[in-house]
Amino acid sequence: MSEMPYPIKDWEQAIKQVKSVVAARININQLGEIEEVHILAGSGRVPKQIVRDVESILAAQFDLQIDHKKISVAQLEENEKGNSAIEVSNRPKLVGVTLRTVNGMAEVKVEMLKGDTLLEGLAEGPSSSHNKLRLFVEATLKALEPLNSGLLFVTEDVGIIQLAKQHIALVSITLIASTGEQSLTGCAIVKNDDREAVVKATLDAVNRKL
């Protein structure tokens, strides 16, 4: 790796000066070039604006030009950050998640409540570590089908990253509608269980569209 004029920590610290940014992590390649910028932010600003501000501050302070496609923004709901936000009562609430594995196959069940109505979603597939997380996204989306008014949600990717000394579940979903495609992202802090965090991250991604 070539010697860099500025340490990564300085870049990350500069990004944290951007309004609404809670934490930042930068990944570089073997040439010392920025490959990925992961940002954890509050929900008060549009992600595109945060990305533009990050591009601007890196260019202004360090003369770093970075492709906006390398910057990903995960936004936390206010109550995830410990603030006294009022919970939206009509949103689906997670009741439970179950996972069964037999002969290399996994079956995932997600149960939620919306008012007095129980919503259930099932998904099954190979039981690899990554695919099991993906099945929790798909089971959540299936449980939400009675509420989505014909909208089509497609799972793009899911993962667990470490950011600001916390593990964060990140979910990427594409919404396909008559007006075209829209990328949705959601996140949730992993408190006790990766699986529950993935379900909550999925809800975070799609709640505003339901």
Q: Descriptors for this entry?
A:
single chain, 210 residues, alpha+beta, 3-stranded mixed β-sheet, 3-stranded antiparallel β-sheet, 9 strands, 25% helix, globular
Report on the structure:
The chain has 210 residues and is an alpha+beta fold. The chain contains four helices and nine strands. The chain has helices at residues 8-15, 47-62, 129-143, 194-206, and strands at residues 21-28, 34-41, 71-75, 93-102, 105-114, 117-126, 152-163, 166-177, 180-189. The strands form three sheets. A three-stranded mixed β-sheet has the order 1-2-3, covered by helices on one side. It has a three-stranded antiparallel β-sheet with strand order 4-5-6. A three-stranded antiparallel β-sheet has the order 7-8-9. Strand 5 and strand 6 form a beta hairpin. The radius of gyration is 19 Å and the shape is globular. Mean pLDDT is 85; it is low at 80-88.
Strand order, main sheet: write it out.
Answer: 1-2-3
Mean pLDDT: 85
How many helices? 4
Beta-strand level of the residues, as a percent range? Answer: 35-45%
Uncertain regions: pLDDT < 50 for 5+ in a row? 80-88
Q: State the order of secondary-structure elements, H for helix, E for strand.
A: HEEHEEEEHEEEH
Structural class computed from helices and strand pairing? alpha+beta
Instruction: State the helical fraction.
Output: 10-25%
Number of strands: 9
Radius of gyration: 19 Å
Separation of the first and last Cα atoms: 47 Å
Largest sheet: 3 strands, mixed
